[in-house]
């Protein structure tokens, strides 16, 4: 593309970022993301969510990076919304960190961000997987 003088779009670059994340090449994905920011691309929520998802899936040590990335999103004008939080809640649940996911859920609701069906599905599924069916039913009814 570049040799032909065709400038890649945000869609093209976010697809590349997604591919890098899926292959656990998070450093390269973040580097490409940073280059996009430097070049003035108007990044959308999909690009941010893709990086968040990649960071979440590459190991528990990246939770601090995820939090820093969330702060950066906010600094750049992207309000943290339920989509971004669902990405993290889902990853925590899948890693067996239900208590951390529930803590984040509480934080989200205190901030006035309204959970959606995806949020509840992730948490209820994790509760059931960890043998907490009674708690899951209570959670569903509240």
Account of the 3D structure:
By secondary structure, this protein is mainly alpha-helical. The protein folds into two domains: 1-79; 81-142, no CATH class. The protein is built from eight helices and no strands. It has helices at 10-22, 26-38, 45-57, 63-75, 82-94, 98-110, 117-129, 133-141.
Topology, number of strands: 0
Relative strand content:
under 5%
Measured as a percent range, the helix fraction is: over 70%
Compute the average pLDDT: 85
Number of helices: 8
- Model regions low in confidence, pLDDT < 50 over at least 5 residues: none
Largest sheet entry: none
Taking all Cα atoms into account, the compactness measure Rg is: 17 Å
PPR repeats: 9-43, 44-80, 81-115, 116-142
Keywords: Repeat
Protein name: Pentacotripeptide-repeat region of PRORP domain-containing protein
Pfam family, one: PPR_2
List the helices and strands and how they pair.
Layout lengths: L9 H13 L3 H13 L6 H13 L5 H13 L6 H13 L3 H13 L6 H13 L3 H9 L1
Helix pairs in contact: 1-2, 1-3, 2-3, 3-4, 3-5, 5-6, 5-7, 6-7, 7-8
